[in-house]
Amino acid sequence: MEEQTRTNYSRGFQGAVLSLLGASDYELTVTGRREISDHYVRIDFTDGGLLGAHPVHPTMWIRMWFPDGRKVHQRGYTLVDPDPEAGTFSVEFALHDGLAANWARTAQAGQVIAATVMGSKFALPEPAPEGYLVVGDPAALPAVNSLLDAIGDATARVWLEWSHDDDRSLPLHAGPNTTVTWIERTDGGQGLVQAIDAAAFDAQRWHAWVAVEAKSTRAIVALMKKKFALPRKQITAQAYWTA
Asked: I want to staple 78 with a disulfide (CB 3.0 to 4.6 A). Which of 66, 114, 143, 185 is the partner?
């Protein structure tokens, strides 16, 4: 399995494009795993030189290549607790139906998986905004925590969508000025959109960070512009998955 992940699987068109764009490839080795909840697992890796070549930044993510027959497909995951000196980091997986989750369910120490670095760019806005509007879910939780760590004591209003009861017990790095609202996923994500709509205020001097399901992300970005009066340049948004 490990040897096939390195050499024998086809990456198809996506892999070819990333290669042409000069993406950097690495081999990650699993060193351990921790079950955070029934639906969430953290897997530890050695980085294969990745952190030595790419400076760490908030919400930093990589593309990992997961097997599907004789092919592999890439999925983006945020680095958790990256340690450049030790050459280690972790990745947290929300367990649902999918290639990445299926791999994570059985991953054991010693397994090797390929990873690519391309496209991860984020820096805290300057000058600092009055506050942050943050929207995520368990899939985006590592990135949310990375952002909250980076902003420290800054004011933040966070909405997190949950599907399983134990989602609400997942570790959240809320600061002293962070307000957190958990919203159950209902009606294909409409519950989250409606909750954010109801909380709208003039946030012209704030910055929004949004990373949930694709349709919900688009709807929330539209709300941030229309109801929160945010210019598009003050919105960081990325659809993390598709229903």
From this structure: 143
Instruction: Find the helix or strand (DSSP H, E) in which 99 lies.
Output: helix 99-106
Question: What tens digit of pLDDT does each residue of 61-99 get?
Answer: 999 999 888 888 999 999 999 999 999 999 999 998 889
Cα separation of 135 and 192, whole Å?
Answer: 9
Q: Which residues contact 124 (CB under 8 A, 6 or more apart)?
A: 58, 150, 151
Q: Which two tokens stand for residue 179?
A: 């307000």
pTM: 0.89
Q: What is the DSSP letter of 113?
A: E
Residue-by-residue DSSP string for 168-233: GGS-----TTEEEEEEE--GGGHHHHHHHHHT----TT-EEEE-SBHHHHHHHHHHHHHTS---GG
For residues 139 and 172, what is the distance between their CA atoms, to the nearest angstrom?
13
27 in Cβ contact with 89 (< 8 Å): no
Q: Which residue has the tokens 């990325």?
A: 238
